[in-house]
Amino acid sequence: MKEFCAELANDQPSPGGGSASAAAGAIAASLLAMVCGITAKSKKHEADAPELRRLRLEFVALADKLTSLAREDSLAYDAVVAAMKHRTEPSESEGKRGVESALRYATEVPLETAAACAQVLDLSPQVAAMGKKSASSDMLVAVLLAEAGLKGAAANVRINTKNMEDPEFVKSSNDRLASLERSTRKLARETLDRLG
Fold this sequence. Notes:
The chain is mostly helical. It has helices at residues 2-8, 17-40, 49-85, 92-130, 136-161, 167-195.
């Protein structure tokens, strides 16, 4: 964690907000995995233990995916910077294609981050319903972090699609993003209300 924060604090633009968004989602998934694990070990929650163990595995997988996306987001940004430097070489049309391809990649990565954060949010009500009450603040923090991760990733998608020339890709990316935001907005509020 110290190393990642030091990387964020350096005087380079990468890693940036996209990586931080994925990291927020990874921490959210990890917190919910922890809540599932400690609750499953409790005698009071024996009946829910099999489902909690299953959920825990899903959260661990999501945390791993989001951790990878944090690194991939930096690589995607670096690819855009490299493409911008070479956009006039060897010909203008090839340079533009290179930039467009890099922007597509730099849009797909945060879109995947948003989708993974949405999955964390989709699963969170089950944990809120079964989790130990003593872990309610952990669950609340997890939901807030997953929501922040989704919103941060969404901002990255939107800023990248503004610079793209492929209207079909832009529309499909923004439509998918809007769908993720719609499907999780109410769910996050309800889960936070339940935990708060």
